[in-house]
Amino acid sequence: MSSKEEKTRLIKEMSAVMDALASVTGQHLEIVLHDLTQPASSVVKIINGHISGRQPGSPLQSAPENDLGFLGLLEQKPTGENPQVFKDYRTTSVRGTALQSATVMFRDENHQPLVSLCFNADHSALETAQTLLRQLLPASVPAEEISSLETRMNEIICSAMPSSGIAGVSKKEKIAIVRTMQDKGLFIVRGGVEKAAKALGVTRYTIYNYLDEIKKA
Q: 3-state secondary structure string, 93-149?
């Protein structure tokens, strides 16, 4: 097969691949098919050309800045497999937008560049949405605040417990201890019931029963 026939075949097949990809990706992904034998008007087909401002017939040099796909064109004696894949690198559009890019380059039997399929993803809209969502979500509690809360809960429990321990403590006395913990706000904090139950050697359901009795008293 001649280089021209090979190029025609690749362009036809890659065009179909582009249509398939475009059907499952959004407008943030630009897909470009280049005829590398015609650098002055290399863009054969482009999907979501608004990302780079290109259209069919645009020159090869209109590609985003720092496009590593050009490395393949500069290699005099390319090594490795054909096609040659340049994975996940960063480029910049003419508008200054940061892009995530990848290129697949196809060569003929003489190792001359024929066709390339390029992908340029613009995540700026997603990053903006992510920033807005972070602003809407409540701020996470700093680790030192969590530690301080834990310390305060333990202080409340210790201050309510008899110095002699819970051995031999009656139900009435346990209810009084729970009342003290409640007055100091232990049970408005998540995990307070469980901590009180552990300290008193009872189940959390028993703590809830004590709280009901306190409420009815």
A: CCCCCEEEEEEEEEECCCCCEEEEEEEEECCHHHHHHHHHHHHHCCCCCCHHHHHHH
Element (H, E) at 86: strand 84-92
Distance CA 175, CA 167 (A): 15
Chain center to CA of 116: 29
What is the end-to-end Cα distance of the chain in Å, rounded? Answer: 96
At 108 the pLDDT is: 87
Looking at mean pLDDT, say which of 110-114, 117-121, 189-193 comes out highest.
Answer: 117-121
Edge-to-edge order in the sheet of strand 84-92: 43-47, 29-35, 113-121, 98-107, 84-92
pLDDT at 141 over 60: no
Domain extents for the chain? Answer: 3-128, 141-216
Task: Pick the closest to residue 201 from 163, 169, 164 (CA basis).
Answer: 169
Q: Which fold has domain 3-128?
A: Beta-Lactamase (3.30.450)
